[in-house]
Structures are given as C-alpha cells and as structure tokens.
Amino acid sequence: MPTTLQPTTLPQLPEIIDGLPNICGWEKEIQSVTQQNEPVFLPTTNIKLSEVQAAFAIALHMHQPTIPAGHNGQLISNLQYMFEHPQSGDNHNAAPFANCYSRMADFIPELVANGCNPRVMLDYSGNLLWGLRQMGHGDILENLKRITIDPTYQPYVEWLGTMWSHAVVPSTPIPDLKLHIQAWQHHFAAIFGWSALSRVKGFSPPEMHLPNHPDTLFEFVKALKECGYRWLLVQEHSVETLTGQSLGYKHLPHRLIARNSHGEVVSITALIKTQGSDTKLVAQMQPYYEAKTLSRQMLGEVSVPPIVSQIGDGENGGVMMNEFPGAFFRASYEIAQNNGGKSGVVAMTGTEYLELIEAAGCHEDNYPTCQPIGQHLIWQKVSPENSTPDAVTNAIAELQQTHHNFHMDGASWTNHISWVKGYENVLTPMNQLSAFFHKKVDSLPENITKESRYREALLYNFLLQTSCFRYWGQGVWTDYAREIFRRGETILANW
User: Fold this and answer.
1) CB neighbours of 405 closer than 8 A, spacing ≥ 6?
2) What GO molecular function annotation could you give as one example from this UniProt entry (predicted)?
3) Mutual angle of helices 452-464 and 476-493, in 10-degree steps
4) Span 422-435, mean pLDDT?
5) Span 82-120, pLDDT tens digits
6) Which residues are CB-neighbours of 6 under 8 A, at least 6 positions away?
7) Which of 95, 109, 100, 129 is nearest to 23 (CA)?
C-alpha cells in the first residue's frame, strides 16, 4: 500500500501547465489521496436509513469536445466554436449551455436556504473543464467550487469521475484506460483541490458504455479500483446475471464481476441506471416518481430502501434546458414536506446510499452479481477455472459465427449507434497513435510524466479517442480526428 498523504500536506496543483491542462505528473500523490477509505457522506448525512422508504439518485452529464477549429487551427472547446459561429446548426444554444454548466451551483444553495434536502451527482468531462477555462469562463468553475468545497453545500453534491476526454471504454486502447482515469483526477484536483478529489468515489463511463470483452472489462475494473473508485454507474441493458438473464431487481446495488481470459477475477459495486437514454427521465424527475412506487427490500439479512439511479445530459435538448429546473424545484419542495426531505422517499447520492446501507450491515458480498451482456455465452464454452486467452479467443470467434447478435463491442445507452462499425478511418489512426505513444514513453523513467512533451503527446492521444469523432458521422468531425492524429504523430516523431 502506498503511504497515505493528507490533502493538507500536498502542494496545490497548477490547473494549466505551459498552456496545457494538468493531466499527469502527480500520479503518486493522486493515488495516495484517492486510496483513502474513510466515509465521505456518512459523517455529514442528515438522513436516517431506518426512516427511508425508497431513494433516488440523479446525475447530470456535461461534455464539450476539444476541436482544432480555433484561430490558425488552435485547439478550442466546441462550446467556444458555438459562441463564435451562432448561425450554424444548434450553435445558438451556446449561452443556454454555458448557463446549464453553472446553474446547479445556484439551485442547491437556494433549495437548502428554503428548507429542502436536495441531492445531485455531477459528471463533467475533462475536455469541458479545460474548455471553460480556455475560453474565459472560469466564472463557471468558480461558481461550482461553492457547492464542491463549501461544507454548507458539499453534502448535497457528489462529483463522479470519468474518462478525461469522453473516450468510450470498449474501444479505448487498454494501456490508455488508467491514464484517462488518472488524468481526470489530476485535472479535478487542480481545480477543486485535494480534499474534493478524496471524496470522488463513483465513476460515470462516457455514453454508459460498458465493455463486454473479458480482458477489456477486467483491465477497466482493475484500473478503477487502483484509482480509488468504489462503484460505477451501469446501464441496465448492458448487463446480465451470471447465467444470462435480465436483472431480477434493478433497484439494488449489484456486484459487477470481471473475469479475464486468464481466469483472474476482480469486482466492483455497480448502481444500475434504469430504463433508456431519454433525457426526459431526468428532466422530468422520473426517478423520484418511480421511487414513490417502491418499498424496502431485503439485501442479505438487512432491510434497505431501494434506489432508482438515472443520468441524463445536463444541458442538451430543450427538455433539459427548460423543463429540468422547474421539475427539480417542484420535486425538492414536495419531498421537503416529509420531515424536511429526510424520511419517506428521499434524494441521495450514490456514495451516500452505499455508505448508509453498509453502515446498516450490508456488504458487497451480499449484493446480487452481474456481468456484461453476452458473457454467459463465453463462459458456457470456456470453463472459468481452465480459461486461457486462446480458449476465449476461439469461443468468441465461434459465437460470432453461430449467434448473429453476438459481438464484443460492448453495450451502452445508444445501442442503435455503433462506436466501431464504419469508423475505421478514426479507429485505425487512434490505435496507431496510442501504440506510437506507448512505444515512445513506456520504457522511460516515471518522472517523464512531469515533462511538457509527455503531457502534450498524452493530450493528443486522449483527444483522438473522444467519442464525438465517432458520433456525428463522416465529415467535419472525422476531419477533426484526422488533424488531431497528424499533430499527435508529429509531436511523437519529433520527440
């Protein structure tokens, strides 16, 4: 175990270094802070579990990609591009989007001042955090500090970690998974401080995309645990029971099992994001109204309130921009009528809920188990006790021939969209750049991560993996990807 360093003894991290976001260089300090296992919400929560019928947790996902579209091809936030080109497409939404990135820092204090007990989880990509600072919108970050750092409001807000540049996990090169996770932790700590980072224990995968290839999933879960995460949010339709059925009860925490082709096993707690991808579910506070229909359940030998977990874009679409504030306030005031929002059906954050049920006697070993969709077919063909990479590879190849729906692309909330098919012109350069990066740096001393040339090469490697270049179809977005690859390759070639 690394020596535990207290956040107060660590140096304040710079947010920007040589014009680049702080995404590396303090790996040992980051690990020391994130591996602390003290309760986060338990010391401050005002909720008594015994008085709760059911709970709900909502998360707001915020992201803007970085694109080479500024003056002379400068890297800028897509939000900045929207402000500068208001006549194109939906770019007129730039100002409302910016407001959405900031407004929870106004909503939470107002609701608390009026006797409510609100909760929200926040998921901001590294691209977005950097882009706001780049474009002179540091005021948004300063506003968010109020609900992140101030002890008056911090108990109502939970930040979720994510991949720094919104890379979808199943198609991200395995050696880059942990680098993305650590990069977000660096950047968050530089903005909000070490103590705030020590409280980030839940993880939100971009696009809710969960890998189902045994080796990718194993490395992902292993990286999450090595980076101090206790749980992650998982899309209900991306997982199955160990025997291949749909989940029996989705409103309890599960234990996600990750077994690789060598038969090694790791696991992590998963909160199940229910239903589909429709942002209306969050905008109209559907999780609250669903929780009102639920009652306590037995988890092992402990009676616990179930939890409805849901995430939606925090800014995208008229329903989120316009309907969410009113619905959030209405639900908060209605909940407050029950003992100030502390009994009956209540809002919680994910870590708060897990800490409360664990304090009541639950243990991860009691949670029902799950695995990524389709894996039961592999383990029917390959005995987990005698698993080898060749056996798993052969089983996958055979299943792809005999089961027309079987694939190893992972599953997400956008199962009608493939992040792989038709994007060879992005994926091939993406994998080439990653391989070139690791060939260049992996044999170098650890302190190379503090050097600007490493940071710049890592940044371009990350940027090329941003999901947006495989979301908007062929055209300007794949052209952006080609330019990012060209620059990244040049940086590494001239190292």
Assistant:
1) none
2) hydrolase activity
3) 150
4) 82
5) 999 998 888 889 999 999 999 999 999 999 999 999 999
6) none
7) 129
Q: Are 109 and 155 in contact (CB under 8 A)?
A: no
Measure the N-to-C terminal CA separation of the chain; round to a whole number of Å.
34
> Does the pLDDT of residue 278 top 70, yes or no?
no
The C-alpha angle with vertex 482 and arms to 479 and 483, in degrees rounded to 5, equals: 90
* DSSP 8-state symbol, 466: B
Q: Which residue has the tokens 């038969």?
A: 263
User: In the chain, what are the domain boundaries?
Assistant: 14-370, 422-495
Please name the fold of domain 14-370.
TIM Barrel (3.20.20)
Q: How many residues does the chain have?
A: 495
Instruction: Quickly tell me which residue has 């429709």 as its tokens.
Output: 278
The phi, psi pair for 429, rounded to 5°, reads -60, -35
Q: Indicate whether 489 pLDDT > 70.
A: yes
The arithmetic mean of pLDDT across residues 179-202, rounded, is 98
For residue 186 the two structure tokens come to: 């660096």
The model's pLDDT over 394-421, given as tens digits with 9 standing for 90+, comes to: 999 999 999 888 877 665 555 545 545 5
Between the alpha carbon of residue 325 and those of residues 57, 63, 322, 328, the distances in Å are 16, 19, 7, 5
- Checking DSSP bridges between strand 202-203 and strand 231-235, what pairing results, if any? parallel
Give the pLDDT of residue 469. 81
